[in-house]
Specification:
- The chain is mainly α and 390 residues long.
- Helices cover 66% and strands 0% of the residues.
Length: 390
């Protein structure tokens, strides 16, 4: 029996049982943090013609922050009278979306789904904090992840209108993936922008018309989202606020991250023709890492959107074939709890800061490798420019 076949026999049971445990035990058991509870309550109020944005935003409990377009898109869950059934269905849809996204990623990277790569990826992904807490907290990020991967896959396949549909559906619910529109912008592809704008616009118009207090979303909710909170916030601003870092220093750090992100995106341009998949996945990861760091709210489970950049390790010319990149991945993917009874201050610091440090290290690693390759072409074959179809 060959080594790949032995690995498949070993990894498939581990992967399947891990998925079952995450879904039927961890997710069904739930947590004190319950993102779906706010969604379900809001959609029930929406369908009943009651105010949607009337909750007290001063508490630390999960709040309903979706725009009227997101309320409209999520409204079908409010039609289910049984809350438990609705939540289990939401868990199931997110699980299916994550698995479908991994299947699409394997196709994007030309990996054989019948090889040991499939259970390896499935096992690794379902062991991450991002996937585990997405299911446990029961939020929509599994579906957003599928939209992201579908967008990258369809861009690569030149299915440009459908690529816009994929990202447009995500933008109608939450704007997390909006920065990825830089990819078709760089390639001067206008088609994705049409459908990416049309779908949220139609959903917003419908949601606005049907939400009795839609104006409160603009007056109250958007204002709240523009503030930096000092709890469950791994962005630079959130971590800085929690530890009392002076605001000018936080601002400088955010500006440096923006500059580093833009420089990395520019340096990655030489890969966009000869190594398109690598360019798409790496640029998306760089952009999103920068966004997580500089936004007013960055939560660790957003790191699910960084799975594509880490999977580029299987590609030639990958920028994450080095130990700092995977130390970074540990920082934003780990489920390990770092608080310590022996060293309480340092343990608490690591527990709060490791997602932030992971995003920073990933961005820094990619940028350093890009600069190293550009400054010393004798150490690494340069990417020759080539004409390619837009």
């Amino acid at each position: 029996m060959t080594v790949p076949r032995v690995l498949a026999h070993v990894l498939w049971p581990l992967a399947i049982m891990t998925v079952i445990h995450r879904v039927l035990i961890r997710a069904v058991n739930g947590s004190v943090t319950n993102d779906f509870g706010t969604v379900y309550a809001a959609t029930r109020r929406f369908l009943a013609g009651e105010p949607v944005y009337a909750e007290n935003l001063l508490t630390v409990q999960p709040h309903y922050l979706y725009a009227p377009s997101g309320t409209f898109m999520l409204a079908p869950f409010g039609l289910i009278d049984n809350y438990t059934l609705a939540r289990w269905l939401f868990i199931g849809l997110n699980t299916a979306a994550i698995i479908a996204a991994l299947w699409l990623l394997m196709r994007l990277f030309d990996l054989d789904v019948r090889s040991f790569a499939a259970p390896s990826i499935l096992l690794a992904v379902f062991c991450t904090e991002a996937v585990t807490n997405t299911l446990v907290f029961t939020n929509v990020n599994g579906l957003i992840f599928l939209c992201q991967v579908a967008f990258l896959y369809l861009l690569h396949r030149r299915r440009l209108w459908w690529a816009g549909v994929a990202i447009g559906l995500s933008l109608a619910v939450k704007p997390m993936l909006a920065p990825l529109l830089v990819l078709p912008l760089i390639r001067r592809q206008w088609q994705p922008f049409v459908t990416a704008a049309a779908i949220p616009a139609v959903a917003m118009a419908a949601g606005w018309a049907l939400t009795v207090d839609a104006r409160s979303y603009v007056d109250t909710t958007l204002a709240y989202m523009g503030e930096v909170r000092d709890y469950y916030n791994s962005s630079l601003a959130g971590l800085g606020l929690y530890y009392g870092v002076p605001e000018p220093l936080i601002l400088v750090a955010r500006i440096l991250v923006v500059a580093a992100t833009l420089l990395a995106v520019w340096l990655l341009l030489e890969y966009r023709h000869n190594h398109e998949v690598l360019w798409l996945a790496t640029t998306s990861g760089v952009v999103l890492s920068g966004v997580f760091l500089v936004s007013t709210l960055g939560q660790m489970y957003y790191s699910m959107m960084l799975i594509p950049i880490m999977l580029t390790v299987v590609l030639d010319k990958s920028l994450v074939r080095n130990w700092p990149a995977w130390l970074a991945a540990y920082g934003f993917f780990t489920l390990d709890f770092w608080e310590s009874t022996r060293w309480p201050y340092y343990g608490r610091l690591l527990e709060f800061a490791h997602p932030t440090l992971g995003w920073l290290l990933l961005l820094a690693t990619v940028l350093v490798v890009l600069l190293w390759r550009r400054s010393d072409p004798r150490r690494h074959e340069r990417i020759a420019p080539a004409a390619a179809a837009a």
